[in-house]
Amino acid sequence: FPTGIFDALLGKGYQKIVLKIKNKKILLVNTHLQTIVRDNIFSKFQHEQEHIQYKQIRQIIQDIKKSKLKTIICGDLNALPNSKTYKKLKDYGFKSVFNKYPVTRSPKNIYWKSTGYHKSKELRNGYCIDYILTNIKNFNAKSEVIKGEFKHKDHKLNFSDHYGIKSNLEF
């Protein structure tokens, strides 16, 4: 069952933590934004879902502006790299810690067909909707996709419908 309906009804939130590292404060924000469902019976709500997602990221950015701290944003943004949501983050100075966009959803993930992305030629082999972004200018990163699986009865299952991502950052 597509999660977009639950997202709209229940809402989403975010967590923020202020880290103090060597007398410098860094804001860490984790979020899970509105799901955007494409190419199925719920796709008629796509424009509204995109609007909700954009409003969510604007709210997070407003909160970041108030803090005036260098920030790391991570989580399931449910936004493609060419989306309005991702563009808003880039316009505010955020950059991915990955050299190229990692594939975090692919045909090997469970629930692949619930999103409708599998019908798109450009996205059929996978796409990125999970990110680690920062507005810190000078950093080195060693980042990777985590493809965690576990066995249940005779089946291999992923921990989630997305692959995880991790990064070691040096500032």
Task: Describe the model.
This protein is an alpha+beta fold. It contains three helices and nine strands; from the N terminus they run H-E-E-H-E-H-E-E-E-E-E-E. It has helices at residues 4-10, 46-67, 84-91; strands spanning 14-21, 24-32, 70-76, 95-96, 130-134, 140-146, 149-152, 155-158, 164-170. The strands form three sheets. A five-stranded mixed beta sheet has the order 1-2-3-5-4, with helices on one face. A two-stranded antiparallel ribbon has the order 6-9. The protein has a two-stranded antiparallel ribbon with strand order 7-8. Helix 2 runs parallel beside helix 3 (84-91). The longest helix is centred in the N-terminal third of the chain and has 22 residues, at 46-67. It is globular.
The N- to C-terminal Cα distance equals 42 Å
What would the principal axes of the Cα set say about the shape? globular
Q: Over the alpha carbons, how many angstroms does the gyration radius reach?
A: 17 Å
Helix percentage range: 10-25%
Alpha-beta classification: alpha+beta
Percentage of residues in strands: 25-35%
Task: Explain briefly what this protein structure is.
The chain has 171 residues and is an alpha+beta fold. It has 3 helices and 9 strands; from the N terminus they run αββαβαββββββ.
Secondary-structure topology with pairs:
Elements: H1 4-10, E1 14-21, E2 24-32, H2 46-67, E3 70-76, H3 84-91, E4 95-96, E5 130-134, E6 140-146, E7 149-152, E8 155-158, E9 164-170
Parallel strand pairs: 2-3
Antiparallel strand pairs: 1-2, 3-5, 4-5, 6-9, 7-8
